[in-house]
Specification:
alpha/beta, FAD/NAD(P)-binding domain, 7-stranded mixed sheet, binds flavin-adenine dinucleotide, binds ligand E1W
Length: about 450
């Protein structure tokens, strides 16, 4: 169906991160926007997000927030992270900077605060938010979405022009679309899960560890990370296999968890006073990658963010990617009056890039848990930094392309693979960069890596 000037309206399912940002972008562009969220208003009853407490925000996400004039409000609550602080088993610390200086840093933000900031902006922009409205089923022929209020079981049938599924990894809209058409859905569970724990502020109210870093305890097949919160706490996440030893199968009680930490993360023990309690009360989170061949049903419904392409969290890009999706969809909706064409163009632009970051996120788990404290990795990193200095527009480190630039993820992935191969070839069998044949390396760089215009010298 075509949209004419006075019928430009959109119904968004989910007032989470992507739903709230898309609502703001579309309302500002003059669309009628209704957002339906199954939970209550977090501004009234406190934030009840079951998922991780804080998130890393990087340039892609910040750029999307700027498009909605939301960046300043969000950044007021952000904590800078300059690099990863690697915690060795013996307690030694090493800060590995993410970028060249403080212009190349990432930010830790509180999910609940971010969501509230975006909801306020969406409302200010003119979007109508409907809380306690869970999408239950969709009558696509009659164009009626059926919502339910889980507090009293009441039903709310609502006509729609087009539905956007921003309802997360367990998307109900996706379920409804699947009953109409085969979307080629495939979910691949990772055989690892996660548990969140908390580091409170110290007795004098300060941070218990270096605040301006993402802390990582790499331990081979598993790892812990911790991100700072602006209220001077850290949220710790332990990623562990589901089976084997240690695993969520072998570490069951709070006591078991304490024993694991004493053995493998001893420096974290004094920082997590409620470890046993946290372990037993906090749910264990599952991790999966969701692949779909199709993201839209003609001009009637489209999916974005986790609903379209949930990924494992190891690159810290799920939200950043979802925010890029919002800007892309908003742009395509503005550019054409056919919803079906806009949805198709959005899918064509974003699907290859979502797949690329899904794959890079899976690869980054092995790198984070097993490589960041390995001598071969550190030598490759040294060469990577040297090559960035020698060829700033050709050799851009993998992390920089993903987190500090906005080039398509698929381009970043391709160049990363070429670079990784080059780094391995020129460091294999070496203990240091002494004796590296720089002329040969430089020739390789020129031959394999065309200039990347967006890269800053
Ligand atoms: P969500 O944020 O899940 O929002 C979905 C919304 O839809 C929710 O409000 C939900 O209540 C609502 N909803 C669901 N079903 C219905 C229904 N039937 N009817 C109405 N409403 C409904 N990303 C990063 O960029 N950086 C990170 O550091 C990072 N760390 C992570 C760490 C962990 C452990 C995990 C699990 C994920 C992490 N992510 C990170 C990924 C990030 O959380 C997601 O990619 C992001 O939340 C996706 O946003 P979304 O809006 O698509 O979905
Ligand atoms: C980031 C949950 C999460 C979030 C993240 C990151 C990681 C490891 C994890 C990736 C990273 C910020 N990363 N960190 N250091 N190198 N790569 O950059 O968000 Cl587990």
């Amino acid at each position: 169906m075509d949209t004419t000037e006075d019928t430009r309206s959109i119904t968004i399912i989910g007032a989470g991160l992507a739903g709230a940002l898309l609502a703001t972008l579309m309302a500002r562009a003059g669309w009628r926007v209704d957002v339906f969220e199954k939970r209550g208003d977090p501004r009234v009853q406190g934030y009840a997000g079951g998922r991780s407490i804080n998130l890393a925000l990087t340039e892609r996400g910040r750029h999307a927030l700027r498009m909605a004039d939301a960046d300043d409000a969000v950044m007021r609550q952000a904590v800078m992270m300059r690099g990863r602080m690697v915690h060795a088993l013996d307690g030694r610390l090493q800060l590995q900077r993410y970028g060249r200086d403080d212009n190349e840093v990432i930010w830790s933000i509180h999910r609940g605060d971010l969501n509230i900031t975006l909801l306020d902006l969406a409302e200010k922009a003119g979007a109508t938010l409907h809380f306690n409205h869970r999408l239950d089923k969709v009558d696509f022929d009659g164009r009626i979405a059926h919502f339910a209020d889980d507090r009293d079981g009441s039903k709310h049938p609502t006509p729609f022009m087009a539905l956007v599924g921003a309802d997360g990894a367990g998307s109900s809209l996706r379920g409804a679309m699947l009953s109409q058409e085969d979307l080629g859905e495939r979910t691949e569970f990772l055989d690892h899960s996660y548990k969140e724990l908390e580091i409170p502020p110290s007795a004098d109210g300060s941070f218990m560890m270096e605040p301006n870093a993402l802390h990582i305890w790499p331990r081979g097949h598993y790892m812990c990370i911790a991100l700072p919160n602006d209220e001077r706490t850290f949220t710790v996440t332990l990623f562990l296999p589901n089976q084997g030893d240690p695993s969520f199968a072998s570490v069951r009680t709070g006591k078991d968890a304490k024993a694991l930490f004493l053995r493998d993360f001893p420096d974290a023990i004094p920082l997590i006073p409620d470890l046993e309690q946290d372990w037993e009360t906090n749910p264990t989170g599952l991790l999966a990658t969701l692949y779909l061949d199709r993201w839209h049903l003609g001009g009637q419904a489209v999916l974005l963010g986790d609903a379209a392409h949930a990924m494992v969290p190891f690159h810290g890009q799920g939200m950043n990617c979802a925010f890029e999706d919002c800007v892309s969809l908003a742009r395509h909706l503005q550019a054409t009056h056919s919803l079906a064409d806009a949805f198709a163009a959005f899918e064509a632009e974003r699907k290859p890039n979502a797949l690329a970051i899904q794959e890079m996120a899976l690869e980054n788990y092995v790198e984070m848990r097993d490589k960041v404290d390995d001598s071969g990795f550190l030598l490759q990193r040294e060469l990577e930094l040297a090559l960035q200095e020698r060829h700033p527009q050709r050799f851009v480190p993998h992390y920089t392309m993903v987190s500090f630039m906005r080039i398509p993820y698929a381009v970043a992935q391709h160049r990363s693979h070429v670079q990784r191969d080059l780094l391995v070839r020129h460091t294999v069998g070496r203990a240091s960069l002494d004796g590296v044949d720089w002329a040969a390396v430089d020739a390789d760089v020129h031959g394999l890596l065309p200039v990347l215009e967006e890269a800053v010298a």
